[in-house]
């Protein structure tokens, strides 16, 4: 039986950095201005307040990131309820020490 209260798996920013060569689906749920000020290369911006409209065609795991890890946890729960396989990135961009890109698009 599906349990809405099951824990959302999480990884560290260092673990996510190791996965970048695999081109994972990274969903940045910060506001557009936060995203434009610096985001992980390849990350797609989909703000938390619009998370219920998120659609992805394939079934790959979605890595969800925000600034500190709080909004991404909320977004991950919402996406899990929609049936997505999700992983929260603990610590968010506050802990990201690798390169970032600025601007609208990844």
From TrEMBL:
<feature type="domain" description="Rhodanese">
    <location>
        <begin position="20"/>
        <end position="101"/>
    </location>
</feature>
<dbReference type="InterPro" id="IPR050229">
    <property type="entry name" value="GlpE_sulfurtransferase"/>
</dbReference>
<protein>
    <recommendedName>
        <fullName>Rhodanese domain-containing protein</fullName>
    </recommendedName>
</protein>
<dbReference type="Pfam" id="PF00581">
    <property type="entry name" value="Rhodanese"/>
</dbReference>
<dbReference type="InterPro" id="IPR036873">
    <property type="entry name" value="Rhodanese-like_dom_sf"/>
</dbReference>
<dbReference type="InterPro" id="IPR001763">
    <property type="entry name" value="Rhodanese-like_dom"/>
</dbReference>
């Amino acid at each position: 039986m599906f349990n809405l209260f099951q824990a959302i798996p999480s990884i560290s920013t260092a673990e996510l950095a190791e996965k970048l060569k695999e081109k994972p689906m990274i969903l940045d749920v910060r506001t557009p201005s936060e995203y434009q000020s610096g985001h992980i290369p390849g990350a797609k911006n989909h703000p938390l307040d619009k998370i219920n409209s998120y659609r992805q065609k394939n079934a790959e795991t979605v890595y969800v990131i925000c600034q500190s890890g709080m909004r991404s946890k909320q977004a991950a729960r919402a996406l899990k309820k929609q049936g997505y396989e999700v992983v929260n990135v603990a610590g968010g961009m506050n802990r990201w020490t690798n390169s970032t890109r600025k601007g609208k698009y990844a």
